UniProtKB/TrEMBL annotation, chain A:
InterPro entries: FSCA_dom_sf, MIP18, MIP18-like. This is FAM96B protein. The lineage of its organism: Eukaryota, Fungi, Dikarya, Basidiomycota, Agaricomycotina. Signal peptide: none annotated. Gene3D superfamilies: 6.10.250.1280, Fe-S cluster assembly (FSCA) (3.30.300.130). Belongs to the MIP18 family. GO terms for cellular component: intracellular protein-containing complex; iron-sulfur cluster assembly complex.
Automatic annotation (TrEMBL), chain B:
The lineage of its organism: Eukaryota, Fungi, Dikarya, Basidiomycota, Agaricomycotina. It comes from Gymnopilus junonius. It is found in: Nucleus. Belongs to the MET18/MMS19 family. Transmembrane segments: none annotated. It comes from the Eukaryota. This is MMS19 nucleotide excision repair protein. Residues 543-995 form the MMS19 C-terminal domain. The keyword ATP-binding does not apply. The keyword Repeat applies.
Amino acid sequence: MPGEVFNPNPVIFSTSKGSGRQSDLLAQSLWIDDILRSEDDAEDWEPIDQDEIFDLIRSIYDPEHPNTLEELRVVSAPQITVGANHVKVEFTPTVPHCGMSTLIGLCIRVRLLRSLPDRFKVDIFVKPGSHQSENAVNKQLNDKERVAAALENPVLLDTVEQCLSNARGNMI
Amino acid sequence: MESTERLVQTWMATGRDEEINEVISDISNDRLSLISVVKALGEYLTSEDSTLLQKGVEFLALVVGKIPEEKWNRQSVRVLTTFFCGKLDDTVTIKPALSGLSTLATLSSITPSEVTTIVEALIQHVKMKSIVQDVRFKVFSVIDSFMAFHRDVLKSMGKKFLDGYISLAEGEKDPRNLIVAFAIARVILIEFDIHERVESMFNILFCYFPITFRPPPNDRYGISTDDLRKALRNCLNATPAFGPLAIPVFLEKISAGSRATKKDALQTLGTCLPVYGSALARVSARKLWNALKLEIFQPVDQETEEEALKATQILVKTIYADEEAAVEFNEDIQGLARNVCEECLQILKEPEKSQAKPATKILGAFMLTTPSVAKYTISQTIPHLVQLFHNPDEASTRTPTLFLLSELIIAARHSATKSSSSGIDPPLSPFKDDVLGVLTTGLKLSGSRLAALSGLTAMVSTPHLFSDEELGFIVHHVNEILEDDEEGFFDESDTTILGLLTTISEIAPRHVSEQVLPSLFSLLTDSPPTREDVAGRQKHWRVLSTLSKLCIQAELFENLVIRLTTKLDIICFPSPQRLVIVSADPEPSAAYVHVILKTLAQALEIKSKKRHPDIPKYLDHLVPHLFNIFVALAFRSDKQPVGASEERLIQVAGQIINLVVQSTPLQRQQSYSISLSKALLNGDVTDIAQGFQKIDKASRLSIFTGSSPSAQRNLVALLSSAVIALRPEVRLPIEDIIGFLDMLLEWALGQADNDLQRLSVFHILSSILNRRADELSSFISSKLNRYWWDEIASQDVPLSRRRLAIISWIWITKALLVRKHAQAIAFAERLYGAFGDETIGWEAAKAVGAIPSADSILTKANHAEVKVLYVQRYVGAVLPRIIALSKDSSDSTRQMASIVALTSLIKSIPRAAYGHEMPVLIPLLLRGLEFPDQEIRGNIIDTFLAAAEGESPDHSLVSEHSVTLVNSMLKNCTVTETSLTRVRISALRYLAVLPKIIRYDILHPYKASVLRELAGVLDDPKRSVRKEAVDARTNWFKYKGS
């Protein structure tokens, strides 16, 4: 990991266990063990929602710490909005001068690029007011050419892969 | 004499073992003396020609190596010792000479003077650097033998031996020799006077630390890295004299090494410190702590962190162990523990930061060192955190503070349980009131509830910490949050809350049953929540599931049974006013009864796993009550809307009855079986059904009679669940047992109305047959022949009846198979005959797989006759036949059915049973993947998944089929091709595994197309499928050549 550490001792938040979905609650049957039987019902369509997108990015590692983005509250479910073919992800750097913000954003972008159907347009922003060079970061993250160029850089790609190495398994 | 010479000459020419053996047998039988052998060798042993000389010495060494112990005398030992020692300086003869010496060294007749001679000769003549490994090994083994048998001689040689040995051992590199050398070194370090040679010994040992040796693949000698590591470690911690020299080495290796080095260094440090002593530990404490601290606060991985914590513990223990007695009197502790505590407390001023966690771990580790350090740590940290919690400025950090506090309490509990035998108060006692105050406050805040609960659980389970009243106080507080929290109903913390209450209920059940249970029971209404009331139903489910986990302890369970059975009566037999509402929509009531029964069944299941002794008594309370309710419902089925016709209710009730009867002792089962058979044969249930509902004594349940109502017939399931749990010694008092079994079969095929009734009857049949197979041989043979041809093979029988007969066949075969009855395989083999039959071929094929599958009827818990390895026996007989049938393409119907049989068989047996056949199976399974039947495809993919577990890219069985597999999986994971979610998930899982088990150069041509296809699957309608697709796609993205 190159250079200085921007935030040597960040605040760790406890993570919540799996996200209870409102839609699941409403579809309850009268019988207690009916849930299993209805699962294979090919009829109903479960749309991609903000919890599902959060599940995809919550376990990405922070490039600086052995903690996940969820533990550092860099990302959270309410900061994600999902439209018909549009996803907007907002994230909060731990400190305003965090030089890793672009890298974190890039990790989120790569993860979603690989895990969402290509009909979705993904926009990634830092939370307004949470970073000193907010515009520069936002511009960089949402510029197709620049993202593509960044991913041509083998060292950078390797760092991204490392942050993503955990991005599976411990999802609920 | 002459013959000896001839033998010698022959050997010189051939080098065979026969000649040696002949010489040995001559010596053993006293026909020849050792001297004469030497004489016969004379010309060789003095030869100028080095080849002849070498051969001569070698012959002698070989003979020496085989002479029986009792033929040796001092004289010959001495002569040979001198002779072999004399040959050490010659590179030609050193090898045989050493092997001769290594034999001599083990002899009991060797005297100290020869030992000295040999050792001196070794030191003087042997140049270790110029000889090969196995010769060096001989040197070490000679010294090793002396260490074992003549240690005092070596000791008396003093420095001469030490210096000599050091020069011999220096620079050794072969692991086989090192293992011996380390063993010798340990003895030297412990027993010899080494104070003048500490540094040299240190040099020849610490140069190997840390061990980086890795055994080559296919290592023949079986020396692992770990063996060497342990052997070396035993040398390093053999003497305190190494201490001052060793500490800097450890420090360097810890800070500069790789992960493996770090771990080794930390572990070795841990074993060495106690030997090196407290004085040294105290002097180097600061330096060591600085190195260890780094590994704890910035760990490279979890393992290293744990090792560093352990090493810290040992360091603290070493420092403070011997002053323990003195410190008991004054609370104050000086030195390292104090400094570290202060350092950690400084960090703990910001409990929400990431460094606080490792700091807490260190403090927790301290509590497990010595009692005084533990006491000191607790007295410093607990008040600090308590104060922090109460500080209004720090309100935002209350949750993390509580979290750390409960971590510390857990550590304190460990330290208390460790020392509880001595009967002293747990170290936490002086602070328990403060801590309890903090925790109960934390309990009220939703954010910190989880942490508070785990802290409370740890405190409650600390022995001797709380009085009965204090436990009551805790229960009171917990109960308050249960009552307050109407909406969320202790959301995520429910398992933790349950954990706490269960822990308390084991110590003081009274508090839980008096305070918690009433309020929980009061949440359960007498009438079910309406169809629309989702939230109400959720609440009921949560309360009941809580109860099922909480009421395990005998007193609480009794309470649960009483309350819930009463509730059952009220719901099943509603008052006339309610009856109208229930009749309009009976389903909510039935579902409510179902979940209540389920609660009882779950609690019983936990109890039965823990083998609680109070289960049998419910044969007289709970079981008759259930029978009473269901019999009453069946008799009045025309008037009662919630009916015995609901199969799900009967199944759960059956489960409860089964669990109770299982754990009933033999004698009680005997008497119970009489009542059971009355109900089975005559429908007389007066003995087994007792409860609140009035049942006319004269009325008889009609199950097997011609036109009985379905509601009454269903009750056969309840009777069956009791019958299947009877012990083999208990026999249902039925006179004509064969007639009874035949009646059951005929009834199941011809009259029963549903699968529940049929299966119940098959279960009864199967468990009776299983227990009494020996006396039922005529029944068995009539089934094997007549029944097969009349009911299954015959085309004249209606299809539905033939299908049912196949199911009965499965159960008959199962009963015989699990007890390894001789006829079991014959029954299974009958099924092959039906494979060619287009109408029932597949049913018969699936039955082949169903027979060995695990079930809940014929189990040890149900006291069935179960022999070990019956599955293996079945597979051994059936699998080869099925494989042969699957390969035979003469009849395509039969071949298809065989492949179906194959997949269903593999599905139900453990992998070890068919693993060796995998190469043959794979092509057959691939054919099955083409079948339109999705269930079968799913089973095949699951088989591939199970097989993938033991595979690696280097030897993968499937790599030659990779194209077919990839294409087939891609087909099976798209929603348009495969409608079953289960199959799509399996296909995606297998796609995710493929990159791990097939070499990159084989699979990489498909990477692009797999990624493209999977992009489409990311849009699957099912969330669970999308998740698997993401994982599979991630694996393929990461799939790169090395």
